[in-house]
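Hi R.,

As promised on Friday, here is the backbone we talked about, encoded as C-alpha cells. Could you run it through your design pipeline when you get a chance and send me back a sequence?
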C-alpha cells in the first residue's frame, strides 16, 4: 500500500447496554480508527441501610403521639447501646392521621395513628446484626429492611472507565496490526458511566425475628452483594 494513498479505518464495536446512549456523530477522518467498548468494575458496598417504621395507634391523637414518642426513645437507646448517636438516624416521613371504622352504616372514628419512617446508614457492618435484632425484639418497629449500597461511587466509576478504555485500545491495536499500521495517540474520547447499585432488601420483613440463643443473626457470616458500575467509552485513535 503506497504512502500516498490515505487509509481510513473505522471500526464500531456494537457491544452496548440495553437502551445505551447513541454514539457521538464524528466525521470520518483519514488515518484514524474509531472504536467503542464497555467496561465494568465490581465494588464492595460501603454502607448498610436499615429502614423501619414506627407506628402507634390510640383512641386520641395525644395518646398516639405519646406512645410513638416512647417507641422513638427506645430506638434512641438501642442506638446509644451500640455506640451510635441518635442523630445518625433520619426521619423520612411523619404523620398523624385519623383511623375510621367503616363497618357501621356511617363511618365511625376509631382513633388516631402516628406513622414515621426511619432510615439508618451504617459504615460499620458489624453493628448491623445486633441493631436489627434488638429492633425486632423490642416490638416497637415494623416493615424493617436491610440493604447495601455504595456511596463512594466516584472511585468505582474511574475503575470502570479504565477497564473500558483498555478494551477500546486493545481493539484499536488489533485493527491497526491487521492493517499493517501502528496505533498512534488518542485523538478523541467520550465516556458514559452507568450505576447499578443493586440495593437489595432482605427477602422478607424482619419484624419479630426470633432466633435461638447463641444462633447467628440472619445477616451474619454472609458477604454483602457487590455493586457493579459500568462504563462505555468511544475513542478515536490516529494511525501511523
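Update: got your reply. Pasting your designed sequence below so it's all in one thread:
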Amino acid at each position: 500500500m503506497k504512502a500516498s494513498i490515505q487509509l481510513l479505518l473505522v471500526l464500531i464495536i456494537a457491544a452496548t447496554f440495553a437502551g445505551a446512549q447513541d454514539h457521538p456523530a464524528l466525521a470520518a477522518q483519514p488515518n484514524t480508527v474509531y472504536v467503542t467498548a464497555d467496561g465494568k468494575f465490581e465494588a464492595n458496598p460501603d454502607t448498610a441501610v436499615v429502614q423501619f417504621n414506627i407506628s402507634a395507634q390510640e383512641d386520641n391523637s395525644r395518646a398516639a403521639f405519646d406512645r410513638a414518642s416512647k417507641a422513638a426513645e427506645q430506638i434512641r437507646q438501642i442506638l446509644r447501646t451500640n455506640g451510635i448517636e441518635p442523630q445518625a438516624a433520619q426521619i423520612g416521613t411523619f404523620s398523624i392521621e385519623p383511623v375510621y371504622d367503616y363497618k357501621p352504616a356511617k363511618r365511625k372514628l376509631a382513633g388516631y395513628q402516628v406513622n414515621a419512617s426511619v432510615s439508618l446508614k451504617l459504615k460499620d457492618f458489624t453493628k448491623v446484626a445486633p441493631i436489627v435484632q434488638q429492633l425486632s425484639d423490642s416490638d416497637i418497629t415494623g416493615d424493617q429492611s436491610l440493604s447495601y449500597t455504595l456511596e463512594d461511587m466516584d472511585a468505582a466509576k474511574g475503575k470502570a472507565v479504565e477497564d473500558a478504555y483498555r478494551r477500546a485500545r486493545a481493539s484499536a491495536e488489533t485493527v491497526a496490526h491487521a492493517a499493517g499500521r501502528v496505533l498512534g495517540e488518542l485523538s478523541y474520547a467520550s465516556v458514559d458511566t452507568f450505576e447499578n447499585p443493586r440495593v437489595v432488601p432482605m427477602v422478607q420483613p424482619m419484624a419479630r425475628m426470633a432466633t435461638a440463643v447463641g444462633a447467628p443473626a440472619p445477616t451474619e457470616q454472609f458477604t454483602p452483594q457487590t455493586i457493579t458500575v459500568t462504563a462505555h467509552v468511544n475513542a478515536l485513535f490516529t494511525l501511523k
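One thing I noticed while checking it: The chain has two domains: 1-43+152-196+227-240, 47-149.

Thanks again,
M.
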